[in-house]
Amino acid sequence: MAAIFSLLLLLLLPLPSLSASSPSPYLSGATLVQNYQNMLKAFKIFIYTPPTPFNFPDAPASLFYNSLLRSPFLTHTPAEAHLFFVPFSPDTSTRSLARLIRQLRNNHPYWNRTLGADHFFLSPAGIDYSSDRNVLELKKNSLQISVFPVTSGYFIPHKDITLPPFNPSPLPLSDTPGQNSTKTSFLGYLRWDGKTEPNLVNEFKGDAYFLVDGNSEPLNYVRSLKESKFCLFLYHGDVAWMVEAMAWGCVPVVIVDRPIQDFPFMDILRWSDMSLLVAVRHGGAERLKQLLNGVSEEQYVEMREACMASSKHLVWNEEEPQPLDAFHMVMYQLWLRRHAIRYARREFV
């Protein structure tokens, strides 16, 4: 009964309206509205019983997993399920994972119908290719959910999904005063973890256009976000604060030397319209300064508004998922991927 009440509550809450005067952060806002409603009404997931109880130490993975276990999307009737969830500990070895998939193949009829294409699993770091046939089918056919960013080679763009990072906000994201103002003191702000790219970071520290600090006090941290035009992120560095930066109107700049295909919700959000990817290995801080100063004020304002509008979809709610938040956007991406090719049933040894 509680699950039915939660679903009805979600259906009654309004979806966001898109202002004609503001840039849309969505690839297709109209499609999102219609498909999201359909997902809430119909989506069903069957969860296999894990071999042993476990928890995810990674915060986004833990929040997603626990929210899924309490969600109204679950069904105990496999025949009505759109997708099947394969739970296993992030510490599971390749041999144990192969044994788990072999057991699903032998003990249940569902894996063999699609060779795992209507199954999904949660692996914070992602899994690599394997010579074992069972793990290879899981890797190539099933939907992988990982935490952004993912090691290159562990993520398949056309099917896999990433979870937005989680960072407890020093102040509520709803208390974001001054969002209409674009007056800033710094061109770029970097909250450095003290590890990644120290030579490059030292260049930023020596340039008055950039602000670099570590884990500053909450009020100083928020002030830094508000006073900076762009927020700098080192790919595979500390990206946990990206959602807060976007909510406060600080446009993310990801420093990376290759295209990124694992941004969260790439099927939904226009990341190209609200973020910049730059390679500055040659030219350093001076090169980055030239690139950021080349962004027109009109383009910057549009990117900033798109960031603030989309940030609500990247927020994890610790107590209980809310409509259109990070958990529901992950579920929405699963819903979009629920169609699977039905292979002829075969017998396996």
Automatic annotation (TrEMBL):
One of its GO terms (molecular function) is glycosyltransferase activity. It comes from the Eukaryota. Residues 41-282 form the Exostosin GT47 domain. It holds the Pfam family Exostosin_GT47. GO terms for cellular component: Golgi membrane. It is a single-pass type II membrane protein. Residues 1-20 form the signal peptide. Coiled coil: none annotated. Keywords: Glycosyltransferase, Golgi apparatus, Signal, Signal-anchor, Transferase, Transmembrane. InterPro entries: Exostosin, Exostosin_GT47. Belongs to the glycosyltransferase 47 family. This is Probable glycosyltransferase At5g25310. The gene is LOC105173009.
